[in-house]
Structures are given as structure tokens and as C-alpha cells.
Amino acid sequence: MPHVITQSCCNDGSCVFACPVNCIHPSPDEPGFATTEMLYIDPVACVDCGACVSACPVGAIAPDNRLEGKQLPFVEINASFYPERPADVKLPPTSKLAPVIPAAQVRARPRPLTVAIVGSGPAAMYAADELLTQPGVRVNVFEKLPTPYGLVRAGVAPDHQNTKKVTALFDRVSRHRHFRFYLNVEVGQHLSHAELLAHHHAVLYAVGAPDDRRLDIDGMGLPGTGTATELVAWINGHPDFTDLPVDLSHERVVIVGNGNVALDVARVLTTDPEELARTDISDRALEVLRHSEVREVVVAARRGPAHSAFTLPELIGLTETSEVVLDPEDHKLVEADLAAVPDRLTGQKLEILRELGDASVPRTRPRIRLTYRLTPARVLGEQRATGVEFSVTGTEDTHRIDAGLVLTSIGYRGKQIRDLPFDESRSVIPNDGGRVIDPASGQPVTGAYVAGWIKRGPTGFIGTNKSCSVQTVQSLVADYNAGALTDPVTKPDGLDRLVHARQPDVVDSAGWAAIDAAEIARGSDDGRPRNKFTEVADMLAAAATAPPAPKRRLLARLLG
């Protein structure tokens, strides 16, 4: 009865280190880990100990006899990752034990290592977790919103609640007695990089890639155009996107780009709103979706089916919950690509695409249509978007798709941080192993580090940030141990006074706990995991119900 990893895998890697027989790959030390769509359990080597189940932060692992119907394809997907071998050979011949990367060892000094982390998403929280494995280390996390956890809160689709379970790990990290949240504090507005560095040995930026890559064609910018990322933020109740003008009064939506975010948006727009009402979707988005006239979402890709950007797990999940179809011409493209499958993973995607329904059959409910070899040429319409004109990739032919809403989903860009270098071509902060590098001198910028998408670009999954952050922490601690980092020039309470002077509405860990509890209570009445606040004022009002700070500090001292 081997265990199986399913589509909710976040590539965290904790299961790899929990496994006593090295049957989960690729491991963080293997070249394919950074780009793999998911991790795989070897059914031959698995000894059914269940250690991986408790280690997985998102509940993605189960015995093969306890899978739901929609998870059954993952039995073969896990097995097909491994080569066939004789019955008496447990591990593949090339297999090697995945070494557990040791935590960076901080050398004791008169003053503890104190690190500011800017951002509170997965890369930030994984970095904090790695730092706090050492005694005496202090971590302060700064986030411009009153709520933490970045894209896990605002970027994961509301019907993917399993994926959001990783926040339980982050909650545990945030309760560490040497961890402090400074939420609703924006670095660059309330505090500068130099001021942070004056109060810490190092500043680690884990701010992600917050900007969308824009599609530079005529008509983008008209009412009725936008990005899939903005729509996901609106669906999730991000306060910056609460008032996004989303018009779903038309029959069709076109999404340019076919990555996982595009499929998430397509799925939400075609899902029965009453199913979404059991999630943490924002009330405003749910009300708009309840009155939606959308009957088809077209997901358009520039290249052919073999180059689909979405992952295999995402495609399987989509086909289990939604009606997904292809035009007859796209079915032909799938067959042509199957005749020359470049690799196993692509072959599995194509086999699933081959089984999709025919778009020429009249629809009976809202559906998703995947289309290929369409390069957007211009958005149609004068006062607002009415459709998209495409060129058929590699030809002189054109193709028009009428739509009342046009969204792009073609990637992300990092954003320059004041006082730090920036690589415009790659949209990242130049770095070496997480150390920020000054391009002019080629030397590290003392005390400045990066992790996550701002370090490596918008690649990988939630768990990919774990190994990325571990590498950065290793670099930071090595510099601290070598005496390359300058001690803070002020006492710890000086930072607290400075932050409160600049931003009286700062939200600390207790304030976030009060917001969290209030949202969960609001949702429990309707059988929802939570009902989010979407206005900053409401978040601050909830945070204000937390116990006064002096009582919290006394409690912390009593607890050690």
C-alpha cells in the first residue's frame, strides 16, 4: 500500500527529509527540484511508514487505497517518474540519499544575530523559520499590509484550501518568542533600508515579483481589460483590489496565457458560485459571480499544446471539476504533438488534452476552452473591449474571438527597491547565493540579502522558496560568523519606538492573531474557513481588540 503525492503538492520538501528510505524525489539536492511540477513517491521503495503524511504541510499525501476518485491518476503519475527495475531491486540504480542540509550554525557573540525580513510570504516565512532554528537569533518581519503571508493569502485560488494549509506552518513560526511582526509598515515609505540596517545586522528582502508583465498591444488599457493576477487578488479580497471594476455581464472571457494562474481564473469564473460560497472568497467577488453572465472562458496560448505552461497537477484538477474543451483544430495539434512527445511529463499532459471534449458540441453549462497557436495582435473595441484579434502563430492568418473581458496572464516582474541595485532585464535584484551584489564593483552590498522571486525570478512553487531561503540564510550566517556584518547601532526598543512614531497603526503578532480569529469567526456562521476583511480600516479595528502590549510582554517573559 504505497503512499501517493497528489495535486495539492506544494514542493515544500519536508516529506523528503522525513522519509527513512529515500523514496521521494526529486530531492532538494537534485538538479530537477527547482523546476519540478511536483514531487513523486516511488511505489516500489515506499515502506508505508506514513512519515511523509505528517511532514506534508498541505495534506497532499495519502495511501493509494484512500484516494478520492479525482486523485487516482496520481498513482500512475508517481510511479511513472521512476524507471522499471527487477523485482528484487528497491531503489533505482542512480538513486542516492538526499542529504539533510544542516541549519546554518550561528557563532555566539555578545549581541544576538538580528535580522529584518521585508515581506511576509512563503520565502520570508521559510527564511524566518530557518533562522530561528538557532538559539538567540531575533527576526523582525515587515509587511506593508495589516495581514501576512503574501500570495498564499491573496494569490492562491479560494477553492484550493489544501494549498493554503501551509499557513499553519507559518503561524507556528510567527509564535516563536524571538519573532516579531511589524505589519501595516511599508519599507520605503515608513522606514528606509538604511534605518532598518541601523537596527539589524542584516536586511533580507523577500518581496516577490509584485508587478504583472504587460501585453504591449493596441487596446490594452481599455475598460474591460486587465490581468489575471489582479482578478485573483480581487477574488481573494486583497484590499488594494477591492474596488477593481470587474464586469461579468458578457458571455465570454478571454485569457491570454495558459499558466496555472490563467487556469485558476478560468475555473473560478465557471464554477457554481454556491460552491465558492464555502471557501474564503471575498463577499464582493462572490456577489458579482452570482450575477455573472459568463458562459465560456477561452484560454489562449501562443504556442502549441506540447508547450502548455500549466502544470500536470493543475490540468488534472481542472478536468475533474470543470468542463474543458478543445476546438477540432486544436485536437489535431494535440495529436501531432503526441506523435513527437519530447518527454514523459509532456506526454502525460497531451494524453489528458486528447480526452477533452469537442468545443463544437453545444455547451450545457459554463465551460473552459483551451486554444493554441494564437498570438494576440490587438484588443478590439473603442469605448471598451469587445474581443481580441489574434494572428495564427507562424502564419499570416488572423482569428477573432469576441469577449466582454480580456485578461492577460503572461508572467510577473520584480520591482526595484530604493537604495538597492536592480537588474532591469531579469527584473530581479542581482545577487550571488542571496547576497545582494553591486554590479559596478561586483562586490556584495553589506547587510543586504534576497530570497524568493525577487532573488531568482518568478519560477517554482510555494515550497521552492524553502530551499531558496535556506541558501540565502546560509550566506547570511556565514557573513555574520566571518564578522562581515555590522552590529546594530541602537537598542532593540529603539526600533519599536521608531516604527510607532512613523506608523502609529502598526499591527504586531497579537494584532494579526486578533484579525485572524475575527475572520474565522465571521466565516464559521456560514460554514466557511474564514470571511476575510477587505478594507484596511476593518483589519485595524479587529487588530485593536488584541490585549494591550504591556500585558503581552509580561506574558512573554513569564513563558520564557
UniProtKB/TrEMBL annotation:
<dbReference type="GO" id="GO:0051536">
    <property type="term" value="F:iron-sulfur cluster binding"/>
</dbReference>
<keyword id="KW-0411">Iron-sulfur</keyword>
<protein>
    <recommendedName>
        <fullName>ferredoxin--NADP(+) reductase</fullName>
        <ecNumber>1.18.1.2</ecNumber>
    </recommendedName>
</protein>
<dbReference type="InterPro" id="IPR017896">
    <property type="entry name" value="4Fe4S_Fe-S-bd"/>
</dbReference>
<keyword id="KW-0560">Oxidoreductase</keyword>
<dbReference type="InterPro" id="IPR055275">
    <property type="entry name" value="Ferredox_Rdtase"/>
</dbReference>
<dbReference type="InterPro" id="IPR036188">
    <property type="entry name" value="FAD/NAD-bd_sf"/>
</dbReference>
<keyword id="KW-0521">NADP</keyword>
<feature type="domain" description="4Fe-4S ferredoxin-type">
    <location>
        <begin position="1"/>
        <end position="29"/>
    </location>
</feature>
<keyword id="KW-0274">FAD</keyword>
<dbReference type="InterPro" id="IPR017900">
    <property type="entry name" value="4Fe4S_Fe_S_CS"/>
</dbReference>
<dbReference type="GO" id="GO:0004324">
    <property type="term" value="F:ferredoxin-NADP+ reductase activity"/>
</dbReference>
<dbReference type="InterPro" id="IPR023753">
    <property type="entry name" value="FAD/NAD-binding_dom"/>
</dbReference>
<keyword id="KW-0285">Flavoprotein</keyword>
<dbReference type="Pfam" id="PF12838">
    <property type="entry name" value="Fer4_7"/>
</dbReference>
<feature type="domain" description="4Fe-4S ferredoxin-type">
    <location>
        <begin position="37"/>
        <end position="66"/>
    </location>
</feature>
<dbReference type="Pfam" id="PF07992">
    <property type="entry name" value="Pyr_redox_2"/>
</dbReference>
<dbReference type="GO" id="GO:0046872">
    <property type="term" value="F:metal ion binding"/>
</dbReference>
<keyword id="KW-0479">Metal-binding</keyword>
<keyword id="KW-0408">Iron</keyword>
